Amino acid sequence: MKVEATLHGDRKVYSVSAFNRGVGSWLSRLPTLWIEGEVTELRRQEGWQSVFFTLKDLEDGSCLPVSMPRTTFDALRLEVADGDKVHVYGRPELYEARGVFRLRGLSLEPLGLGAALARIERLKRTLAAEGLFAAERKRALPLLPRRIGLLTGNEAAAKRDFVTAVAARFPAARVLVAETLVQGVKAPAAIVATLEALSREPEIDVVVLARGGGSFEDLLPFSDERVVRAVAACPVPVVSAVGHEQDTPLCDLAADVRASTPTAAARLVVPDEQRLRADLERLRAALGRDTRLILERGRHALAADAQRLTRAPALLLERKRAGLDAVAGRLRALSPRATLERGYAIVRTDAGIVRSARAVAPGIRVDVELAEGALGARVEETRE
Length: 384
Known about the structure:
There is one protein chain. The chain is α/β, with parallel strands linked by helices and 384 residues long. It has 4 domains: 6-110, CATH 2.40.50.140; 122-271, Hypothetical protein af1403, domain 2 (Rossmann fold), CATH 3.40.50; 273-334; 338-378, no CATH class. 40% of the residues lie in helices and 25% in strands. The protein is built from 10 helices and 16 strands. The strands form 4 sheets. A 5-stranded mixed barrel has the order 3-4-5-7-6. A 5-stranded parallel sheet has the order 9-8-10-11-12, with helices on both faces. The longest helix has 62 residues, at 273-334.
């Protein structure tokens, strides 16, 4: 829209709106550029479409208002706060409604330590989303590793602390030391190559990454994406002992176990020989007691079985005899002799046993069997 003035005599007079539009139009022709300053007065609300803050020049206190679309600001996923030193990429503009000059922010990057922390935080979220830090990926350390790989720098402290602690706890342990760069821009590639070579060595069952303490910048190689992925992909369990207790490089999250110091790592990868021997002695004593108890119980069981076997034939014979007596009693009860002994008799003719008076006639000879002996008789009469 063309900005036009109104003539008042010999004067060209612009309205506030027209003036602001003209200045705004002129500012819009300026290029986008990077501005450095310290964040102050950061303001953001849930319902706002933009995020507002002020960039302050630390040398003379000059200030520049900045607005940035909320979606752009949130997409950066940066934990920006008052006092952070940043670079803001944007273009000058005039908020015409209020005549306020400001920078329209299009992107933002923290500086120095803040920038490194932001990069690490973004990488951390990416790798976590891939599952590299998942608990189910963690592997258990071997109880008695055949050989321990130690990846460390050429500094004496970390290597000495680890090797000394391992030798004190388990003198028979074998440690293969691989020294490499652990600081500087070349360190990540060197750490990855050394880790891959060390894990392929014969009988290596666990690898320990050990580095002494240092500044945040000194430990940056152990948060490098290449190193973190190499730790996660290592074919044997990895113990990360990098920095001090308060340091948490990303390799700590990808490793199977984290140790606060190289000495603590030694306590994780090898057992205490004296305690192990004491445990074995207790187990041996317990095994001896259990064996004696089992033998004693077996001896008692055999003795009881022997007694039962000794009594078994007599018991069996007695049971058989009792059974025969019961059968004999039932047979005697069913025998005709038992009936005769109660005073009854069996009468027979030549035709057989007489069961009815109609089967005989007077004058027929019959044989009468008694309980004791028999007699012959002749029928004199029959009665029905």
